[in-house]
Structure formats: C-alpha cells, structure tokens
Amino acid sequence: TQLLEQSPQFLSIQEGENLTVYCNSSSVFSSLQWYRQEPGEGPVLLVTVVTGGEVKKLKRLTFQFGDARKDSSLHITAAQPGDTGLYLCAASSGGSYIPTFGRGTSLIVHP
Amino acid sequence: EAEVAQSPRYKITEKSQAVAFWCDPISGHATLYWYRQILGQGPELLVQFQDESVVDDSQLPKDRFSAERLKGVDSTLKIQPAELGDSAMYLCASSQILTSGMPYEQYFGPGTRLTVT
Q: B22-32, pLDDT tens digit by residue?
C-alpha cells in the first residue's frame, strides 16, 4: 500500500504571508489531486496533476507535480483567512484506481 | 451545479445500535466511494463501487459494516452493531467511470458526522 506523507502537519500564519505544503511518497503516481476541506464539510477538489513537472495555477495557489511523479507541492501566495482549512493530497499508482489520501496539512490564516 | 447528497448530516447513536447512512452520487457518475475520516486525519477508503459491483472493500470491517448499491445509483452504508470507535465523519464521493490511464476526480458530499455514545 502506497503511503502519502504530507508536511507540515499544522501551519498557523498571518494574513499576507506565503506558504508551501508538501505531499511525498516513494511510489510513482499516475495522477495526484489536491483537496481543501473546511470543518464539518467534505473535501473539495482543487486540482489534478498528471504529467511529471507539471505546474498549475489557481488564482493565488500554485501546484507542482514532481518530475518523477512521486511528490507534489502547493504554494499559496499572500494567504487570506478564507484559505483556512485542511489541505489533502490523494493519488493512485499504476493501474490501480483505488485512491489513497495523505493525513493532510491543517492551515490557519489569522487576520 | 450537481452535488453528492448525503443524509443524515449528523447522527448520535448508542453503542450496539444499528445505524445507516445514505448517499446519492452526481447523476451519471458510475463510481461511488465510502470513506471514514477520523478527526485530524485524511479519509480512509472503506468501499468502492463501479456501478453495482464492489471494486474494493478490503478495508471494510465486514463483521459489522455492510454497503450496497443495488441499482448502481444511490448507496447505503450500514453499521451493526455500532461501537464507540466508530465515531467519525463518513464521507461519500463519486466520480465518472474509470478508464485506463485517465485520472479520476472525486466529488465529495458533505458527510455524516457519527457520534456513538
């Protein structure tokens, strides 16, 4: 079973700061997704990355897939309180369609 | 915008009682997932359906949990008897039919928060 490790586990920052969170594994992934989950709600899909080295931008969020497709990062520029939430990565490898989630990074952005 | 529906949103039950959760996926989504999420952790897959067939239920505690998707549309997850350790968020997600080499994108419902007392 592949293991997705996310870091840091917790992050508390002030509004306007930049941050990066990571998702790492020893497995090669066919695709990887990032989700944001607010307390008491289900995760909401942010992005899917497929190609090694791929970079995708969603407003102030920048997602990168590692060249070897074993890791990914999420960078947030000028964080806002509305960015507060649990950021989860999920992936599957090879021909498996069975998804695995990381434990998530819990982000709090203080006004 | 189409959404995954789940009910109830909250459930409090006593241990040893039976409890059931319902999920209605996005119309046209052939794949349906049930997850359990303990506070502070990522979702853990319990069971995955493709239409009415189970794709994977290796992490489903089959002595007390059961899941069905009889007509390949909506689904029910049941726990009987409930134990204190079952307290968690139960999430349902759906995605379009899985094809080789294509990434799946899951869309989640709001979840059912279960508290076992």
A: 999 999 999 99
Q: Who's near A72: CB < 8 A, 6+ residues apart?
A: A22, A23, A32, A34, A49, A63, A64, A65, A66, A89
Report the alpha-carbon distance of residue A32 to residue A52 in Å, rounded: 11
CA distance readout (Å), B25 to A54, B4, B31, B88 = 30, 5, 9, 21
Taking the Cβ of residue A42 and every Cβ of chain B, the question of whether any pair is shorter than 8 Å is answered with yes
Burial of B33 (0-12, 13-18, 19+ CB in 10 A): buried
B contacts of A99 (beta carbons < 8 Å): 33, 45, 104, 106
Cα–Cα distances in angstroms (integers) from residue B38 to residues A12, B62, B90, in the given order: 21, 19, 9
Spatial separation of the C-alpha atoms in residues A81 and A12, rounded to whole Å: 11
B92 forms bridges with which residues in the sheet? B34
| Mean pLDDT, range A36-43, rounded to an integer | 93
Distance between CA A38 and CA A101 in Å, rounded? 16
Q: Where are the beta strands (DSSP E) in chain A?
A: 5-7, 10-14, 19-24, 31-37, 44-49, 55-58, 61-65, 71-76, 85-92, 100-101, 105-110
Would you call B45 and A44 a contact, using CB atoms and an 8 Å cutoff? Answer: no
Q: Quick: pLDDT tens for A58-70.
A: 999 999 999 999 9
**Percent of chain B at pLDDT exceeding 90:** 79
The pLDDT tens digits for A12-22 are 999 999 999 99
